[in-house]
Amino acid sequence: MAEVATQAAAPEVQTSGARPGRVSGIVRGALRWAGVLPFGAYVALGLAGPTIAIAVAAFQDSNTNAATFSNMDAAVHGTYFTGLQNSIELSLVSAIVPGIVGVLVAYAIFTAKRGNVLRRVVITASGVFANFGGVPLAFLFIASLSTTGVVTGWIKDVSSVDIWNHGFTLYNVKGIFLAYLYFQIPLMVLVIMPALEGLRPAWREAAQNMGASTWQYWRYVGGPVLFPPFLGCLLLLFGSAFSAYATAEALTGGTVALTPIQIGALLNGNVVAGQQNLGYALGLIMVVLIAIVMIAYTILQRRAARWLR
Amino acid sequence: MRKSKAIATFLVAASTAAFAAGCGSNSNSSSGGSSVDWSKVTHLTASGNTSMTALVKAAEKEGQLNVITLPSNWANYGNIMKDFSAKYHIHISDAIPEGSSGQELQAVETEKGQSRAPDVVDVGTAFAVEGDTKGLWAPYQVQTWNDIPANAKAGDGDYYADYGGYVAIGYNPAKVKVAPTSFKSLANPAYKNMIGLNNSPTTAGAAFAAVYAAALANGGSYSNILPGIKYFAHLKAIGNFVPTAIGGPSTVQNGTTPILIWWDYLLASEVKPVVPGFKVVIPSDSSFASYYDQAISKTAPDPAASRLWEEYLYSTTGQNMWLQGFARPIELSTLVQNGSVDHAAYASLPPAPSGALTFPTQAQDATAENVVTQNWAKDLG
């Protein structure tokens, strides 16, 4: 409500101070756009430029730069196609599961009193863990949960069960998923928190006053309000898992085909030479996939959020 | 050369390259006193203005050498650079020490014309060949050119093997009770959850070579690497192979991979010092050697210093310094024959298999790369 009020008041303040006339109108218009300029330049340099470069290179031969479809063709066949499938599946599961767990954890802390020690600890810890990844994370899991890991040892001491003899392993796609949980859940807690804080206690009280059950409150009030930001957060988690690289590589040594690892091998590796542009083709496919997910999200959010506006 | 997986390094390198693109011309001085254009010199003469003495003079005048991706703890490069600098009063700049061969080529291409562009590279053979195809190298034959085996150099001197080693099995006897001797012996059930590679064979040269070596031990050949992939798939199926990509001193120390398959010289230089009693053997059923290559950039900003650097590396001093870093210099057999080898350093390496060095051809290597890329995840996943 407060925002609406200031927006409505702003034009009056501006017009009362400025002299009317075409020139000042143009200047004002230019000034208004000038404010966007740094962001526009940033987007053009950091996002549009590289994307165009990748898109062009994807259709060029690695050595002759001649136009070709062979990179795209290779990218959607054999191990590279498997890589895309695995990457999408892993990212979906690594978005949805931590997404649900994260929202529950966040809600649990949210209901705690503001200033509560546990709440502060969880939020601070989430900030730290959400940014922990890469080879150090893989090594943390190997040091604690591999066959000779510390935690594996404790479990063996306490229960005389060696989890590795019962099908547990770190070195496959399940191991990657387990490691991803480590940063995905805290990430979800961090990003969903502002949305939870947007749930006014007054809404719940009003619903209760009108005789709504807890289920009805969540079904008709809390759920619809939270749904669009929840989807947005899932998208963020999907992107985070989709682009994650070093942890998966370190844990599985290329035995699980994943697109980012394959791109790394093509662009940055010491084995495959002269196929950089196949890497660009895979990169372009990732960009397109993320774009599709973003568009789907925008459409969904428009529909879900319609009544909020 | 090294397989740093950090894409960040790549981005930083790329962006700094882009940044510096505007920074103008360089000290492309082509001669040292006389009118010699050192960038065109393909070999030294015994006397005159392209003699060793003239080269030293010209290189000292340039006073600068740009190398790239030489980690100081790798093959003794730290000491080699220090000694070269001190001897000739030439300052060495080492760009992205932990970078990869692919990044070296990118740097040569993108920094062309700048004073900070790489003068010389040290790359895997596939990348030396790629650079040759793209016309990036200046042909040069060092004075000891004839001591480099013919199958380890480009005939015209565009690139030439420098140092390398054999695929070897390293193990920590404290944890590994039965000593492994061959690839076949690694299928022993006693080695459950013990055997590691340094990285994925789709990214790291050493792991790729390990798969090649395993192929040779299991009925494969330079033309057929598939048995090597099947071999590791079998080791994984029986639970012996731990497919982590961070195999190295730390995974040997903490027991994740008490048996590590890697280059003999890296097992000796990186793992042995931190794991007491660590043993290195070259498998009895396969000897697979691979060497890195030197090449001088055609657009080297310091053409004389580049050539002097190569002369230094292929001198007895340079060759022995690599050996002191546990790498096998390409002219090792000459050094052994004429007695100029550093005996202590030579004795610290596992004895080399008898017989002449053989290598896969470029075509065989390229085929093998694609077979591994397409099948590694499929067969081991």
- What is the general shape of chain B? globular
Rounded average pLDDT of chain B: 89
Structural class of chain A: mainly alpha
| Radius of gyration of chain B over all CA atoms, rounded | 21 Å
Counted by DSSP, the helix tally of chain B is: 14
Q: Looking at the chains present, what oligomeric state does this protein adopt?
A: heterodimer
CATH homologous superfamily annotation of the largest domain in chain A: MetI-like
Explain what you see.
The complex is a heterodimer of chains A (309) and B (381). With 309 residues, chain A is an all-alpha fold. Chain A folds into 2 domains: 22-58, no CATH class; 74-136 and 180-308, MetI-like fold (Orthogonal Bundle), CATH 1.10.3720. Chain A has 14 helices and no strands. Residues 1-18 of chain A have low confidence and may be disordered. Chain B has 381 residues and is α/β, with parallel strands linked by helices. Chain B folds into 2 domains: 7-163 and 292-347, Periplasmic binding protein-like II (D-Maltodextrin-Binding Protein, domain 2); 164-289 and 356-380, Periplasmic binding protein-like II (D-Maltodextrin-Binding Protein, domain 2), CATH 3.40.190. Chain B has 14 helices and 11 strands. In chain B, the strands form 2 sheets. In chain B, strands 3, 4, 5, 6, 7, 8, 9, 10 and 11 form a 9-stranded mixed sheet that branches. In chain B, helix 2 packs across helix 10 (303-313), helix 6 packs across helix 7 and helix 7 (226-237) packs parallel to helix 14. The interface between A and B is large, with 41 and 52 residues.
Keywords:
heterodimer, A: 309 residues, mainly alpha, MetI-like fold, 2 domains, disordered N terminus, B: alpha/beta, D-Maltodextrin-Binding Protein, domain 2, nine-stranded mixed β-sheet, 14 helices, globular
